[in-house]
Amino acid sequence: MNEHSHLSWAGPLTDRRNAQERYARAYQPRERHLHPAADFPGYKSTIARAPKQALLSIPQTMSELTGPVFGHNDLAPHDDDMIVNGQVDGEPIGERIIVHGRVLDQNGRGLPNTLVEVWQANAGGRYRHKLEDYLAPLDPNFGGCGRCVTDEDGNYHFRTIRPGAYPWRNYRNSWRPAHIHFSLFGPAFATRLITQMYFEGDPLIPICPIVNAVPDKAGVDAMTALLDTTANTPHDCLAYRFDIVLRGPRQIFFENRPEGL
Ligand SMILES: [Fe+2]
What is the pTM of this model? Predict the structure, then answer.
């Protein structure tokens, strides 16, 4: 190949690379047919909040495609340890557990530098929130919020107390299975995704109206963490593994996407 032929390819290759980078940065709309309808009557509040008209696509601008950028420097030492980060004068009450896994793309590649935030009820099923009115008591030594950033292979890791089931104002006698809420931030605010993690073997999973909004059992399984005895801490914590797949056929259900792109 002479110098001229090399130069003649420089332009198109550069253009292609730029196009690939733009595609990689833009967030892609979800495959709607794989996910629950926005309006699911068994989940009562969807009736009022589901869109009644066709959705509009809004062009992406710099604010969608840039920032924020998160790093380990932004985290406090015990942000990923909910057994410790809410303590006032003792240990929190309940079953001590580890929740860990990887954040993956559709090709199984780990996604580094992804901010993973979690929030949950305490062992009695009570949230630390001013609008919470369930009669289970607050635990003075448990806050219920944590966060971490995935490492270079997409791994994340939390210690926490296993949350309890709780009743909710849906239809009479509706109960939520034990669950942990997850939020993930990629490279921009528009890439925020929110989901819930359930625990293997919980008998409330198949009778939960929110879970049942997911049409495919494989989708429910993808949100269910498995007991991972290889990661237990002996005489301390049981471990559960929850891998979060952002795209493709193994993608987990993200609850903040049915209403928008
Ligand atoms: Fe919840």
Answer: 0.82
* Token pair listed for 225: 């963490």
Do 173 and 166 form a contact (C-beta atoms < 8 A)?
no
Strand 224-227 to 193-199 pairing: parallel
Over residues 110-126, the pLDDT tens digits come to: 999 899 999 999 999 99
| 32 CA to centre of ligand 1 in angstroms | 24
Which residues are catalytic, by number?
127, 166, 176, 179, 181
Give me ligand 1 centre to Cα 178, in Å.
Answer: 8
Read off the pLDDT of residues 227-258 as tens digits, 9 standing for 90 and up.
Answer: 999 999 999 999 999 999 887 555 677 776 65
| Domain positions in the chain | 3-53+63-245
**What number does CATH give the domain 3-53+63-245?**
2.60.130.10
Name the DSSP letter for residue 177.
Answer: P
